[in-house]
Amino acid sequence: MHQLSTSILAADFNKLGEQIEEVEKAGCQWLHIDVMDGMFVPSISMGMPVIASIRKKSNLFFDVHLMVEKPERYVEEFARCGADMITVHVEACNHLDRTIELIHDSGAKAGVALNPATSLTTLDHVLDKVDMVLLMTVNPGFGGQKYIASCTPKIRELRKRIKDLGREIDIEVDGGVNDATIETVLEAGANIIVAGSAVFKGDIAKNIHMFQEQFSKY
Ligand code: DX5
Ligand code: ZN
Questions:
Q1: Is residue 175 within 6 Å of ligand 1 at its C-beta?
Q2: Ligand 1, atom 6: nearest CA belongs to which residue?
Q3: What is the mean pLDDT of residues 116-138?
Q4: In the 3-class helix/strand/coil scheme, how is 196-207 assigned residue by residue?
Q5: Model-level pTM?
Q6: What's residue 216's pLDDT?
Q7: CA of 98 to the centre of ligand 2 (A)
């Protein structure tokens, strides 16, 4: 099952509520929420108050991407604010297995994220416990960057490992996905597609339909 997860990092925060409604009306079901702490990544974005506020009016699936050092400190609070999926970076966790357990205990689905330079072997002992793997296809920290082409074989390799494992695990790709790169990531085996700039630049509904049309081919 393919899903577009629209990243609100590229939204106009002056009319965030309206834009989320527009995304929902266009048929997108997932909302990607990028939380940055200024330590794990250079920038600072948004946190609990924003999520709690938009939760009141939206029924979308909240896909919360924590680009945060020691994310276990905040897992329960993000779940309480309305996160449906909580994704932590393997590079930011000292006790990844315990953090995955904590996410599940808090009632959310658990995702793990890998930076472009991080090997798939870091997943060896946790893959059977996660609901989703997020592969960064840019270096995290900013929207609007260019897709790193050397990440494509990594998507393909992960899809193979998941198939061999025999469990249904989503592969999410994040960074630089647009009309020029979408076919590459779908062909490689990604099924959850994050897009920020490619949704919010121009006509939101039209952009979302472009992604949906691509999904229908797979
Ligand atoms: C980058 C974030 C991404 C970002 C993607 O650190 O994790 O989710 O919003 O933005 P685009 O789609 O513009 O590359
Ligand atoms: Zn993200």
A1: yes
A2: 140
A3: 98
A4: CHHHHCCCHHHH
A5: 0.98
A6: 97
A7: 22
